[in-house]
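Handover notes (outgoing to incoming on-call)

Open items:
1. Hydroxyneurosporene-O-methyltransferase: sequence verified, structure written out, both below. Nothing else pending on this one.
2. Nothing else urgent.
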Amino acid sequence: MKESTMSATAKRVMFGYIQTQTLHAVVKLGVPDILDAGPASAGVLAERVRARPDTLARALDVLVRLGLFCRDEDGRYAHNEDSRCLSSAHPNSLADLLLFCARESYQTFAHLPEAVRTGEAVFPEAWGAPFWDHLEANPDRAALFARAMERQSEALLRKLATDHDFGQYAEIVDVGGGKGQLFRPLAAAGVRPPCVVLDQPSVTDAAQAYLAQEGLDHVRFTAGDFFMAVPEGAALYVLKFVLHDWADPECLRILERVREAMTKSPGAKLMVIELVRGGDPSPWSYLSDMLMLSTFGAMERSEAEFRVLLNAAGFEVEAVEAIAGAHYQIVAAPRS
Ligand SMILES: C[S@@+](CC[C@H](N)C(=O)[O-])C[C@H]1O[C@@H](n2cnc3c(N)ncnc32)[C@H](O)[C@@H]1O
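Hydroxyneurosporene-O-methyltransferase structure tokens:
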């Protein structure tokens, strides 16, 4: 490999922070939403978002070079296929996730060398409190995070609802289920058994409002702590994007609570939905692993690591199936 190519790769990785924050600036100003209505010049955009036209054009030119948005011969900017998901109206919008990560995660990553050295979370060093406490103390950031989680999962859950026969379960409990967003695509696919969402008390108001707004009257929200107890007696327990927030000892405690709850419903299954590290050729699952390390001192696990963890918690893995990209569903049952 030529020297120049080697340094180009190193520079691309090294200056990733410029890419993140240039995109952050453009999304925070609301440019993608304005471009939904059609192409616009830097002058028009700048007036709408109250920015300087020359600096806004320079920022947009960075993103055009990187493959987001395009610029026509008249100098007007427009969406391309890859930038549409940055508008807030897009059904799978990434805007909220970007607005959250470009601030909370971005500042946390400045401390990553310490996390790599120790294996401990560095979110508290960056923000003065552990992640969930930070959200508890900042309701607007908590609402942004909850919306980001919901949007991020929409397409994945729609796919899962058609891939897996959820109609076979008499009752479903979503452990750490946020506002209950799992149940919207399931209801849209005609699956409406009695359902329970267990999440933290701080989520209660947002969850009640969400369930009422979405007409999910078959879903009940329960405020609680999955380290203490999980609602008993359901046919299916779902843990979606929960285990990756915790190191193995905490995961074992959560899984133990789930297994206890399942003793009241023989034949019950556990479904773990997670990004599997190395589960597809893209680097995303490895990048997300660093996100989990810095934020929680946790990890994205490989399939083998999930098998070891579930086995240690007394579960037999019955199926491991890809949903989309490196997202997988892992179905397990308590070992008798
Ligand atoms: C990454 S989010 C995933 C939410 C949802 N399952 C999803 O896939 O969109 C993790 C969830 O775990 C919840 N959580 C964290 N600690 C908890 C605890 N001790 N008891 C119950 N829920 C908790 C959070 O409030 C949050 O909703």
